[in-house]
Amino acid sequence: MRAALERLVQWVRDVHGALGTADPPSWKPDRLEYDVKLAATTPDGRAVGLAAYPGRFGEFDWYSFDQLGPGDRVPEREPAATTRSLVPINVRFRGMPNSRWWHFERGSMNLADVKADRSELAKLVLIDFMLVHGNDWFVVPFTQEVGTLCRVEAVLVHDVFGDTTLVPAANAQTGPPTERWSLFSATAQGTAGTADYFVLPPSAPSATQNGERLEEVRFLRDEMLNSAWGSSTPSRTGWDRRGRGTSARWRSRPCTRPSSTTRHRP
């Protein structure tokens, strides 16, 4: 028995490190969360650090990472470059105006009924795109491995007239970084610009399966008392959304006695 306990203690040390009474180095007690930082190699071969900021439920999406500093170049770690030829397709979404004349759209989604305030600029831009410029956008399928960084060097468009047009990046124009338009780019801390690559973490795909909630624990900060509160709500096995458990449903069923008449097959 003693030998088994010693092996267990050694396994815990190998996996979790030395356990003590102090907080882990990555724990931030003032915010009741962990400080996560990653090391990565940019597409141009520079070693950079990425600061991660998880979401409300602990998930990490592409916008959860910020670049820390410009980074140093690592010659022995050259990234792989690929070239692909693809056929773009038109952007399609529910409620999109039909491109053909005298063709009525389905009334499942009424874009004209969307209420937007003057301060909701993102909603106004989205409505303008869906109603006016939706048929001018195209989608090009691209596959990227999770846990990698990717940068688009150039986009060449071959039209039906045989001409080739170079499409530059929208944020590659000259001018202040705050006046450039960029999407799906990581923020570069310490500068007013963004990084020139896209981060695809393993937790970004929507294929992650989440099981039933067993227990919900919420931590609340009280700024007036300078303290924190913890609230735990356990879930009971077999309970549905209406609050009636499986055992309660079984108990509510009336018991039926067996009939005294017994039939025999001749």
In short:
This protein is an alpha+beta fold and 266 residues long.
Structural overview:
The chain has 266 residues and is of the alpha+beta class. Among the domains are: 89-139, no CATH class; 215-248, no CATH class. It is 12% helix and 24% strand. A hairpin with a 4-residue loop joins strand 1 (27-28) and strand 2. It starts with a helix and ends in a 14-residue tail after the last helix.
- β-strand percent reads 15-25%
Q: What is the helix tally?
A: 3
Structural class: alpha+beta
Q: Low-confidence runs (pLDDT<50, min 5 residues)?
A: 238-253
Helix fraction, binned, reads 10-25%
What's the end-to-end separation, in Å?
65 Å
Lateral strand order in the biggest sheet: 3-4-5-11
Mind describing the biggest β-sheet?
A: 4 strands, mixed
- Please tally the β strands and state the result: 14
What is the 3D form? extended
H-E order? HEEEEEEHEEEEEEEEH
Q: Over all CA atoms, what is the radius of gyration?
A: 29 Å
Quote the average pLDDT: 76
